[in-house]
Structure formats: structure tokens, C-alpha cells
Amino acid sequence: MSKVLIIIGLLVFAYACRTFNNRWLAKLGWLAVLVSTYLGGYFLAGNSHLWGGFALSLWVLFPWVEIVGRVRKLRFPLHSEVRHRFPPSREIFPDLDLITTEVEESGFDKADDAGWKWEATDHFVRIFYHSAKKLQATVSVAQQEGFVFSHASLTSRTKEGMTFVTTNYPFSFTMKLAPQQRLQRCDSAETFDEMLVAHDSFLEKHGVKPEAIATQDPDTLHTTLETDLSEQINHNLTAGVIIREGADHFRYSWRGCFYLWFQVVKDMIRV
Length: 271
What we know:
Helix content: 40-55%
Number of strands: 10
Shape: globular
Number of domains: 2
Keywords: Membrane, Transmembrane, Transmembrane helix
Strand content: 15-25%
Strand order of the largest sheet: 2-3-4-5-6-7-8
Oligomer: single chain
Number of helices: 7
Largest sheet: 7 strands, mixed
Structural class: alpha+beta
């Protein structure tokens, strides 16, 4: 009974850590989950470290089974048309208006509501533009089988064709970035203004001067997003992460499956 109580205690501790909006407490909670998993295998097999290690390895084996058994069978369009669309309902994304107000108070103007669909995932994006900073902002919502998550991004494009993106996207990316794309994750930002400060620092770090940033047309930003998607897909075709499936679709190669798996493991470590 004491062994069961130890595991239950660790799981309760892990849950408590996850209720705090603190990155290090979240990591501590995740560590408690791993320890409880190990102890579960260890105790069930009669104090066997081998079975404890096996139970722990299931955390990385299950994603691989999911990737090979389901994701590799999926087919995605080579070309996704980003077109105007209505925003999701308040039931799906109740904070959209509040976030929009926050972005507009930072000097951005709403440019468009657009979206596209990949297999069973529905993507919506609200696009903003800051004329003085020549800066694009997006608030994105993805829906898949009842699972909904959102994130914000800031994008500056240089006259030489480079793209610099700061985002609080919560997961590792499922495809490699195109060569002309540079990305900064900003998970710790609690406000949109903090993301703006982080993006300015990102540009400064790469030596991007204000005069080097290209002016963007707010009316065509949705087509620019479409171009970004196409360039990323073409790069991943070249890199062998994805392969063509017929004339209009692609799927993940075995190399791509390993890439996805490593991304999932990275997310686990980064929690």
C-alpha cells in the first residue's frame, strides 16, 4: 500500500506543479510524472530496474507508434489556398476579441481574416499590420477533432528576402524551416508587448536595421502566408522529410517520421 501511496503522491505533486504558470515548476511536475512511471514499472515487476526503465521508455515509444501507425498514412495537399474566411465562434475561441484589442492597442491594424485546411486540421488566422514598424502580426487558431490551440506570431521581411519570425507556438514544428526563414520561440511572453520587445531584440541580434525591412501590402498578406507555406513544403520535399503522393498531395517519409518523433521528444524535454 505504501508503494501505491508514493506513486499517487508523486502524481498529485505533478498535477499541483502544472497548475502554476511557471516553466520550472512545470518541468518539476513532468519529472515527477516520469519518476512515478518508473516506480510503477519497478514495483509491479518486483523491484526490477529493467521493468522500471521499460515503463519509462513507453513515453517515447508510444509517439513513434502513433506517427508510424497514423500520421504516415495521412495525405496533405501540396498547395493550400489561404483565403478569406469568417472567424471561429466564441465557443471555440472565446479570447479572440480580447487578443485583437490587445494587438490593436500596440499600434497594429487588422488586415484580414483568413484560413486553410490540412486534412482534418482547420486553420484560422487573423492578420494585422503595423505600418510604422513594417511588421506583420498574426493570431492563429487550429482545430482538430475537438482539440483547439492558439498562438501569436510577429513577422518581419527584409528586402533581401529573409523572414524573421517570433512566435509563442506551443509545440515543435512538424516540418523544417525554409533556408530564408529564421525563427525565435517566445514561450515566456505573458503579453503581446513582451513579444514585441522580444522580436525587436531578435532583429537586433541578427543585425537587421529598420531600413533593411521591406514594406508589406496589408491587402496581400494572406497570399504572402500562402507563399510561405509553399516554400516550406518545397524545402521539405528537397530535404526528404516529405515525399509526393500523386500529383497534388504529399506524405511523410521514413526520414520525416524520425524527424517528427525527435520533435515530439524535444517537446517532452522542453515542457
